[in-house]
Specification:
The chain contains ten helices and 14 strands. The protein is an alpha/beta fold. The two termini are about 30 Å apart. The structure holds adenosine-5'-triphosphate (ATP) and magnesium ion.
């Protein structure tokens, strides 16, 4: 089974108006809602691939109730830890006439020690040999060691952790020895504290990490991924496509990799599926969504090369 962790799921709401008239009542002509979050995007893509996952994290208040309800309606199985605070909301106001969008973000909720303990209790129940994907960064008020503790707890239980984070959380989390990490090239540069732009630099700078981390996958946008596992170094490149939005492409890549690994695929094959998912998601304007049809056609043109 695959579990995904989104510590800060967001209820996204888009309100379209002809134009905003200040100090007056404005009629909303269209309203859309969605549940956002990197782990959640991974769960959605796994579902599109025909797999199953359980989405975990923290959710609270009416935003939390609604976002979990929406996910369940989409067919994503959820096991969020209920919190006292209100889950975050992103409200986008789109003015049709001026083609202007304004984003209003509510603050992310605080997590109490009791709530954090409850989340760890659920984590303790994840069965051995499962995969847990940890995506995105911890909440502002969280201890910098939160991911490191999570990785350590899961690793001790024989669960394989896939970590996709940035900055201090990635540094400390990677230090705890997850099974796989998926930084993009900029995040990788911050992790190894080097300027990185070329494939051979990735291979070189990843060396010290290989002791602790079985699989290292560095994504490079249109240049695909470099994968490093047990002495195997490879470069997997997608075909050229007409990109509509590359936001969340990394989440689709992670979904393809973890889905394939959980089905028993080799590391090499999982990278090919991952790259196809990542690139397929760039054809879709919504963040981190890909269709099976797109990815099947792209997969045929994904190039795999040992380096
Ligand atoms: N411009 C592009 N053309 C083709 N494929 C792309 C492009 N951008 C991204 N991809 C695909 O998506 C994968 C992940 O992309 P990227 O390196 O941009 O991830 P990321 O920076 O972690 O994204 P995010 O954090 O927004 O989800 C790439 O390996 C590739 O397969
Ligand atoms: Mg990313």
């Amino acid at each position: 089974m695959v579990y995904t962790v989104t510590l800060n799921p967001i209820l996204e709401r888009t309100l379209e108006v002809e134009e905003v008239i200040y100090d007056d009542v404005n009629r909303v002509v269209e309203e859309r809602k969605n549940t956002g979050g990197k782990g959640i995007d991974v769960s959605r893509v796994i579902k599109e691939l025909g797999g199953q996952s359980i989405a975990m994290g923290f959710a609270g208040g009416y935003n939390g109730l609604e976002l979990v309800g929406r996910l369940v309606n989409e067919g994503v199985v959820c096991d969020f830890t209920k919190i006292h605070g209100e889950s975050g909301a992103y409200i986008t106001i789109y003015q049709r006439k001026k083609k202007l969008q304004t984003l209003l973000n509510t603050p992310c909720p605080a997590i109490s020690q009791i709530e954090s303990d409850e989340f760890f209790r659920k984590i303790q129940e994840v069965p051995v040999n499962s995969y847990v994907v940890i995506s995105g960064n911890p909440l502002q008020n969280m201890n910098d060691n939160f991911y490191a503790q999570l990785v350590t707890t899961l690793k001790e239980k024989g669960v394989k952790v896939i970590l996709d984070a940035d900055g201090e959380a990635m540094k400390r989390g990677a230090g705890a020895g997850p099974y796989l990490i998926k930084p993009n090239i900029h995040e990788f540069g911050r992790l190894v504290e080097k300027n990185v732009s070329e494939v051979d630099e990735i291979v070189e700078y990843a060396k010290p990490l290989e002791e602790k981390i079985e699989c290292i996958v560095v994504s490079m946008g249109a240049r695909g991924v470099v994968g490093i596992a047990r002495g195997v170094h490879c470069h997997v490149t997608p075909p050229k496509v007409n990109v509509r939005s590359s936001i969340g492409a990394g989440d689709s890549l992670v979904a393809g990799i973890v889905f394939a690994l959980s089905q028993g695929s080799t590391f090499e094959d999982s990278l090919v599926l991952g790259v196809a998912c990542g690139t397929a998601s760039t054809l879709n304007p919504a963040s981190g969504h890909c269709t099976k049809e797109d990815l099947e056609s792209i997969k045929k043109d994904v190039h795999f090369e040992k380096i």
